[in-house]
Amino acid sequence: MPQKGLSMRKIKEVLRLRFAADLNQEQIARSCSISQSTVHRYLERAAAAGIEWPLPEEYDDRQLNELLFPLRPVRSQANRRSGADFAEVHRELKTHRHLTLQLIWEEYRQNQPDGYGYSRYCELYQQWSRNHNVVMRQEHPAGEKMFVDWAGPTVPIYDHRTGEAMPASLFVAVLGASTYTFARATMGQGLANWIGCHVRAFEFFDGTTKLIVPDNPRTGVDRACRYEPDINRTYHEMSQHYGTAVMPARPYKPRDKAKVENAVLLAERWILAVLRHQKFFSLAELNDAIAPLLERLNHRPFRKREGTRALLYANVDRPALQPLPAERYVMADWKTVRASIDYHVEIDRHYYSVPYQLAGQQLEARYTGLIVEIFDAGKRIASHVRSSVPYRHTTNPAHMPKSHRAHLEWTPSRLIHWADAEKPPGTPGVDTLPAHSLGRNGWNLNRRSGPHDPRKQTTSGDGLSRLPRHHAPGEDVLEPADGSRQSTRPETPGVLLHEPALDSEAFSRSANHDGHRARTAGSDPRKPARARLLRSGRNDSPVTTNERKS
């Protein structure tokens, strides 16, 4: 390592004492606390350069240094300098975290055996770095920017019963002009906590700034980009509610948000470090402990200027802040949904209707804890009260087709009243039929009827009232005096049908016809209508195969 030369101030003092005070070299050495040989060497260099005292006014320290220590011409200087690309060295050091300058120098010497030594190589790189890594001084007008970020260290919160520790994150916000700081602990760094901390920060500052400068967290920025970052929809909606804008810092450029980086460092030193010996069992307990420490930090005097953060906030930032809106922002989530074939969309395992014309279309849903809103191309097309019942449907009748609404108007009770009004005089009411003799929702699903005509879908009671009563061979039949017949076979609970008598020939023709329909229908329960309805809930058929053969 070469010996470091004297400062230019001391060299000027040597020249002054020799030419102005007319002291000898020994006296000059004692006065400047240097060796006599050093005094002799500098005086020789001054005489060789033709320097006289007093120095010309246009001479500065750099020009005097060039006169006393001129660069010696080196034959291989151009070749040695050509191999040192410090811009590439700087890029590699930033890209590879484990790379060192010594390793780069060793690779450089392998390609340039006559190149610089390690000490000179490091010195030249430091000079290049000082000239290129300059930082612009940023001026922050009052009330313009609020910088936000999460602190790196977390605080453990312990469960009372199990003793399990859960990490709590610290959110930090700071105003640009006064560095007035806000801090709050949350359980995690999710979107709800991110938005909630912004709302509390605005209320703590008692106003809003024109810009919010965050980092690029996934909760706030969907896609980080140097020029056009994609802001989260909820985050963007919150900024619109408070009349501000979000301007994320450039990726991997922490100097864009140096204010909050410094505020996070101070919060870690004056808040988290102070709480290191305490044990917390709830988030509220932790925030109660943070509040007085935050107050002390904001009233702590500056070291290099007069005043405190709180005093500077009251005089500079507070008058320039925008007023808070009349209502507090309510957290809302956004979700891209697609309407299914039944014109419903799924949100948190519950289904909400949209106009049936939008079935199969991609829509956007905005939902809070109380309401669900659905948008198509930015226009709200549906609104529902939020329901927490899973796997159920909330349907607005106005969203249904006309045929679907007409279908739902024919409820089982309405069908029963209609059947009672249309039944022949003296026929028992339909409401006396057993429940298992009716179809689903109390309807007899007649496939031959129109799909959307409820009047054609008669109830089982109405169909039974029009069917003749069949009796198995050998069954006793009672004939009252009025000419009607009644079977002695025990009846299934339900409706006693009053039917005209059938002769044996008519019964045989009817039994053969029903047997043919049962054989051709197979196992489909919808096709053998007459034979199935006459069972009145029994599993055995009233006409067996042997009886049909006989």
What are the defining features of this structure?
550 residues, Arc Repressor Mutant, subunit A, Nucleotidyltransferase, domain 5, six-stranded mixed sheet, four-stranded antiparallel sheet, 19 helices, 17 strands, 37% helix, elongated
What does this structure look like?
The chain is α+β, with helices and mostly antiparallel strands. The protein has six domains: about 10-70, Arc Repressor Mutant, subunit A (Orthogonal Bundle), CATH 1.10.10; about 75-130, no CATH class; about 145-320, Nucleotidyltransferase, domain 5, CATH 3.30.420; about 335-400, no CATH class; about 400-465, no CATH class; about 465-550, no CATH class. The protein is about 35% helix and about 15% strand. The chain is built from 19 helices and 17 strands. Helix 1 (about 10-20) runs antiparallel to helix 2 (about 25-30), helix 1 crosses helix 3 and helix 11 crosses helix 12. The protein is elongated. Mean pLDDT is about 75; it is low at about 75-80 and about 440-550.
In short:
This protein is an alpha+beta fold. The chain has 6 domains: 8-68, Arc Repressor Mutant, subunit A (Orthogonal Bundle), CATH 1.10.10; 77-132, no CATH class; 145-320, Nucleotidyltransferase, domain 5; 334-400, no CATH class; 401-463, no CATH class; 467-550, no CATH class.
